[in-house]
Amino acid sequence: MSESHAIPGYAYGNVSQTTPLSLEELDLLKQTVLFSPEDERFLHLAGEVLGDQTEAILDVWYGYVGSHPHLLHYFSLQGQPDGHYLSAVRKRFGQWIIDTCTRPYDTAWLAYQQEIALRHHTTKKNLTDDARAEPIIHLRYILAFIVPLTLTIKDFLAAKGHNAETVAGMHAAWFKAVTLTAVLWSYPYVHTNEF
Amino acid sequence: MSESHAIPGYAYGNVSQTTPLSLEELDLLKQTVLFSPEDERFLHLAGEVLGDQTEAILDVWYGYVGSHPHLLHYFSLQGQPDGHYLSAVRKRFGQWIIDTCTRPYDTAWLAYQQEIALRHHTTKKNLTDDARAEPIIHLRYILAFIVPLTLTIKDFLAAKGHNAETVAGMHAAWFKAVTLTAVLWSYPYVHTNEF
User: Fold this and answer.
1) pTM over 0.95
2) Residue B55 domain-assigned?
3) Which of B144, B151, B194 is closest, CB to CB, to A138?
4) Any stretches that span the bilayer, and where are they (chains A, B) (predicted)?
């Protein structure tokens, strides 16, 4: 992972956030999204398939954000997008694709999801990149992102010639992983004891 | 909809909940989940396809809840499932499948999603059915349900002989609708101004 250390603000393994769930509770959540050892294998394969396509994926996602003023809003202050912030987040977003596919979902993974969650929330928004932008990303859009992040990945999963069944397996595993992640990212927004 | 009035606690069109979003904000949320007029047409078709399969779908969903103690928990008090509650919810859940496919996403729809949200939350949990059960469904499971509700519907969408492209279209539309709904159901759990 030596190249990862070159990504500013990428603190995987170096955050000590209290995680919202224990590993036992995470396991129940994984059961709820039907996440099995087979999904883990499909995700690892997806990591191989997507590894050299992250820039193209980010082009799609950034095109989508950039073409929707209500989303670009969260990278902006008083209507002025912060280019440095957009570009700093983009590097970490690319690494997130790979991490989602290849990292074990353990305590370090949970802690970094919590760190990302806090960076969306007022708690830590804008701090990492010294950004000039809105003080929070509203939760409804974090959750709604499950859809574009899931639907737009399919073509990239299919781009390396795997058969339809394997692509569908990778796609379902990705969908489960993205939903799991979005659930964890909701934690700072939710009333105590209601998460 | 005359038969719908026979479902105890089904109050579509008869609730006056303040909705968390205006129609303009709902439109932005629909854009975020890539929900288009084409999805609306696919959802209507899905409503026709699923209309006589709701009991079979509910068998799958209830089998899934019943086989996971951490989910059955929310229909139970001190480990004792409330059969009357399970059965009352089941009837409304079947109607929800149809409503999700066929109702216009207007103010009445928003108001009823808010009513359902409050019935999951401490605000109104157990009141409608006089249930003996846990006082809240934790948000993480409401959100996690996006996955099983989406993945398990595919076979039912394919059961009436539509071609693969049409089934995929109905499936994507259903995924968007379920995610949209889950987002709205999160509202009572979220800090003021963070939704």
Assistant:
1) yes
2) yes
3) B194
4) none
